[in-house]
């Protein structure tokens, strides 16, 4: 499966180092590999507004694309969302005052599909825990797409947040079985079977596929294995798959300009990684000179995504009034209204439909303003947003 382009996808973010009291958020239930991937994409999409918004949205086609299955398979999507709503997340941790806190919540409080949009929400208590970088680490989507086993992805998720401490700590085997989604199976009550069918294959896939290396250690009571822990270290061969936290970027002048304009920390670092300081600076210079722009952040987003700027018209030159120009204006407005994750997915989805190398190259250079793909782009956005071109006279594109 093709990777999500590292230099463009907002992707997973590593936050601060795991501190002393690492919260244990355990997800019970037998999630499929698809459901685990879905859970990560939904969290990534909602992360920046987890606390400030009670509901989150992502269009269904984008969601399917990011997970890697047929974008028309709504039945599978419904089944996966139902599974997340029926899954329990449980935490047991020390709060800031050193008091023990236990809590339980469904993984999603609700989800619905309407008009091609997936709307969903987390309970306020769970949203607070998921947003805390000491508690939960977002998973790099490029890495999760490589997994073919649900057990391996589950092991990776539960080990990755301990990478800074080097060990998961000791887990009772009954807890480990819950984390792997195999509790209740008499077959896996026997450690020999658990080790052969779950632990060894999962460890092998994590070490081969991901940016960390894990090694299991067991502890016995008498002759019976009762606990397991995993030693964790960075995988130097696949470390490139991980996205650094962009700490160095935060000290640059271009980052400061973006933040002053109102761009979020995550989005500022994403744009700098994807486009480089020179291009972002050029677009900033252009956007800051524009008059009568309601949202300069939104305009900058469209400028970077559509690769327009210096070639655009001056404020004192009347804008073209042709149907073609109006169509393009509406397309760029539609692009601007979408989230960074959705814009990345839109570009990848459109590129996947281009078979001609010249057409692909032209789109890579010019984005949604690609002259060679004007007709295809109009058809794409008409399908994405029915009614987008209502009122525009028919004109060959």
Automatic annotation (TrEMBL):
<dbReference type="InterPro" id="IPR036388">
    <property type="entry name" value="WH-like_DNA-bd_sf"/>
</dbReference>
<feature type="domain" description="Initiator Rep protein WH1">
    <location>
        <begin position="18"/>
        <end position="159"/>
    </location>
</feature>
<dbReference type="InterPro" id="IPR036390">
    <property type="entry name" value="WH_DNA-bd_sf"/>
</dbReference>
<dbReference type="Pfam" id="PF01051">
    <property type="entry name" value="Rep3_N"/>
</dbReference>
<protein>
    <submittedName>
        <fullName>Initiator Replication protein</fullName>
    </submittedName>
</protein>
<comment type="similarity">
    <text>Belongs to the initiator RepB protein family.</text>
</comment>
<dbReference type="GO" id="GO:0006270">
    <property type="term" value="P:DNA replication initiation"/>
</dbReference>
<dbReference type="GO" id="GO:0003887">
    <property type="term" value="F:DNA-directed DNA polymerase activity"/>
</dbReference>
<dbReference type="Pfam" id="PF21205">
    <property type="entry name" value="Rep3_C"/>
</dbReference>
<dbReference type="InterPro" id="IPR000525">
    <property type="entry name" value="Initiator_Rep_WH1"/>
</dbReference>
């Amino acid at each position: 499966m093709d990777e999500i382009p590292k230099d463009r996808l907002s992707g997973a973010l590593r936050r601060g180092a795991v501190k002393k009291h690492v919260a244990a958020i355990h997800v019970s239930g037998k999630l499929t590999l698809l459901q685990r991937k879905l859970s990560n994409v939904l969290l990534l999409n909602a992360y920046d507004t987890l606390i400030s918004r009670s509901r989150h949205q992502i269009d269904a086609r984008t969601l399917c694309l990011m997970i890697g299955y047929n974008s028309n398979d709504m039945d599978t999507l419904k089944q996966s969302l139902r599974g997340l709503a029926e899954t329990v997340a449980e935490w047991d941790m020390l709060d800031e005052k050193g008091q023990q806190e236990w809590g339980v919540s469904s993984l999603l409080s609700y989800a619905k599909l309407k008009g091609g949009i997936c709307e969903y929400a987390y309970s306020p208590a769970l949203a607070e825990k998921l947003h805390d970088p000491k508690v939960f680490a977002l998973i790099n989507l490029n890495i999760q797409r490589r997994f073919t086993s649900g057990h391996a992805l589950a092991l990776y998720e539960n080990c990755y947040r301990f990478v800074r401490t080097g060990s998961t700590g000791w887990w009772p085997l009954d807890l480990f079985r819950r984390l792997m989604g195999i509790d209740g199976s008499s077959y896996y009550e026997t450690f020999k079977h658990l080790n052969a069918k779950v632990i060894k294959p999962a460890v092998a896939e994590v070490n081969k596929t991901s940016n960390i290396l894990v090694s299991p250690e067991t502890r016995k009571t008498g002759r019976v294995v009762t606990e397991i822990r995993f030693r964790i270290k960075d995988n130097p061969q696949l470390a490139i798959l991980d996205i650094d936290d962009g700490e160095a970027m935060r000290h640059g002048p271009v980052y400061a300009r973006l933040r002053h304009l109102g761009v979020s920390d995550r989005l500022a670092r994403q744009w700098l990684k994807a486009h480089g300081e020179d291009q972002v600076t050029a677009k900033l210079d252009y956007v800051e000179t524009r008059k009568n722009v309601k949202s300069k952040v939104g305009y900058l987003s469209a400028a970077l995504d559509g690769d327009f700027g210096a070639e655009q018209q001056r404020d004192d030159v009347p804008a073209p009034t042709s149907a073609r120009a109006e169509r393009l204006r509406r397309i760029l407005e539609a692009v601007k209204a979408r989230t960074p994750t959705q814009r990345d997915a839109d570009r990848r989805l459109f590129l996947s439909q281009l078979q001609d190398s010249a057409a692909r190259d032209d789109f890579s250079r010019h984005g949604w303003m690609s002259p060679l793909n004007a007709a295809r782009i109009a058809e794409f956005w008409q399908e994405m947003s029915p009614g987008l071109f209502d009122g525009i006279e028919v004109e060959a594109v």
